[in-house]
Amino acid sequence: MEINILKNYSKLRPSLFILPILLLAAIAVLLYSQGALGIDQYIQIQKSTFFFINHSLGQYPNLQYNLTQIGDASIFLSFLGLFIVFAPKIWESLLSGLLVSCLFSKLLKYIFAVPRPAVVLDHHDFVIVGKTLTGHNSLPSGHSITIFTILAVLLFSLMPQKPKHKVLWSFLIIIVGLILAFTRVGTGAHYPLDVIIGSIIGYISGLAGIFITRKYRIWAWIGDKKYYPIIILLFLVCCICAINKIIDENLIIFYLSLASLVVTLFKVINVYAKGYTKN
Questions:
Q1: 8 A C-beta contact, residue 127 and residue 52
Q2: How far apart are CA 93 and CA 205, in angstroms?
Q3: Residue 53: helix, strand or coil by DSSP?
């Protein structure tokens, strides 16, 4: 698997950044043409779309609330734990990409300071699932950035070789990403453009993570079995965190996350024990 991933990485070119940058530029031009570069106008032009999506998705609050948790990096990454054993290069890219995404998210939220829907809209007019978020950090959606950062890494790391399969794989990744990202509108946490912009930034972050990994071996230790005790300790901590989440909110997604962590933990311990025995 690692060989195929390295082959996929070697084919990537910086020109892949052009499309997402053009999409962001197109959104900026659209907002400018609508006179919506200011915070109030930005919110106003999205209100009807926000209400429509929110009411449509809000009919399934439990589903939305479970799916939106995947935008938490600790939850999403728990389902990818086995790649540490079978494809550590993916994890190298994920960590680099998530660091880039964190920088983008913190910086842009601070610059734009767009109030959340619950700050400016009447709570009786839309569906709020889970905690009522009232900060001035709506743009861009951090969950959407995280989701598409991880999916972008998976997209290019596991890209099939046949053209037909490439199209299907890319389509699947985009659809899954949008379903997960728009749960942020369904739960009343973000406006639609927050999610779209966040998704594009996430794609850029994931792609940047791959290019960083291709050039620098920052996280090369992840694939070295002598560091597995550190990884085992980290996964034990993650298991404890998952148990705490279950105690606090008792969501199905947290049970699945815990199950995935336990399976990964067992596999890592098993691989490390075999290597230790051989030595």
A1: no
A2: 10
A3: helix
> Rounded to whole angstroms, how far apart are CA atoms 185 and 76?
19
Token look-up 């199950």 returns 259
Q: Average pLDDT for residues 15-37, to the nearest whole number?
A: 97
Q: Which residue has the tokens 């070789």?
A: 161
- Cβ-based burial of 90 (10 A; exposed 0-12, middle 13-18, buried ≥19): buried
Write out pLDDT tens, residues 84-134.
Answer: 999 999 999 999 999 999 999 999 999 999 999 999 999 999 999 999 999
pLDDT digits (tens, 9 = 90+) for 70-86: 999 999 999 999 999 99
Residue-level pLDDT at 41: 97
Using the CB atoms, write b or e for 150-173: b if 16+ within 10 Å.
bbbbbbbbbbeeeeeeeeebeeeb
Smallest CA-to-CA distance from 26 within 207, 200, 205, 202 is with 200
How many other CB atoms are there within 10 angstroms of residue 82's CB atom? 13
Residue 276 has pLDDT above 80, yes or no: no
CA angle 91, 93, 98 (to 5 degrees): 95
Q: Identify which of 53, 18, 47 has the alpha carbon closest to the alpha carbon of residue 186.
A: 53
**Cα–Cα distance for residue pair 266/279, rounded to 1 Å:** 20
Contacts of 197 (CB under 8 A, 6+ apart): 24, 27, 139, 140, 141, 144
Q: Rounded CA gap, 211 and 199, in Å?
A: 19
